[in-house]
Automatic annotation (TrEMBL):
It comes from Heliomicrobium gestii. It comes from the Bacteria. This is YitT family protein. Keywords: Cell membrane, Membrane, Transmembrane, Transmembrane helix. The chain crosses the membrane at residues 39-60, 69-86, 98-117, 122-138, 150-178.
């Protein structure tokens, strides 16, 4: 139950960050960033596009990451989709580019970090990040930065150069936060492997 509540809190933080990025008309990295870009481009719902993009990655997750991780990731994806859909009920507002990049990057970075710590992800690129970390020991923050930057660069057509630069700033912020959480992510993975139940220490 505690694990599920942590995943819910992580999705709330990530969803809030994505909503702020959307109101600054910025993108972020990973599947959420790609879904934001496509939603701007085609005027489609972020929630629907996000879930559709994730389908191929669930198959990869089942094959290499196991049933528990895949189910938690599917749960997190559905929660995020529902949370971001609430944005339609909020009054329309605009955020300055710097505020969207800073606040959105911090919230998404914290949310993703706690998802990784609790053995989950938001699907898509996040699955690849966790896979590379477990298989090759690659720093999840650096992997996130590289792949997220590629997503942002591919989104320049829909948001423009200036907003693209601020979007990269949000990626730098969230990648730094994930890198800082690397130790707890590694510890959590070791506990899962060893079948331990102790919670990771608060750093």
């Amino acid at each position: 139950m505690k694990n599920l509540l942590n995943i819910l809190l992580s999705c709330l933080l990530t969803g809030a960050g994505i909503i702020l990025l959307r109101h600054a008309h910025l993108v972020t990295g990973g599947t959420p960033g790609l879904a934001l870009s496509l939603s701007y481009l085609f005027g489609a719902s972020f929630s629907v596009v996000y879930l559709a993009i994730n389908i191929p990655f669930y198959l990869l997750s089942i094959r290499y990451m196991g049933r528990s991780f895949t189910l938690k990731t599917l749960l997190a994806s559905l929660l995020l989709s529902g949370i971001t859909a609430v944005d339609r009920l909020l009054p329309d507002f605009l955020l300055p580019d710097w505020a969207g990049a800073l606040l959105g990057g911090v919230l998404v970075g914290i949310g993703l970090s706690y998802l990784f710590i609790n053995g989950s992800s938001l699907g898509g690129v996040n699955i690849l990040v966790v896979f590379f970390h477990q298989r090759f020991g690659w720093d999840p923050g650096k992997s996130t930065f590289v792949m997220d930057s590629l997503v942002v660069l591919s989104s320049l057509y829909s948001v423009g150069l200036l907003k693209g630069l601020f979007s990269i700033l949000s990626v730098v912020i969230l990648s730094f936060i994930i890198s800082r959480a690397k130790g707890r992510i590694v510890l959590r993975r070791r506990q899962e492997i060893l079948g331990e139940t102790a919670s990771p220490p608060v750093s």
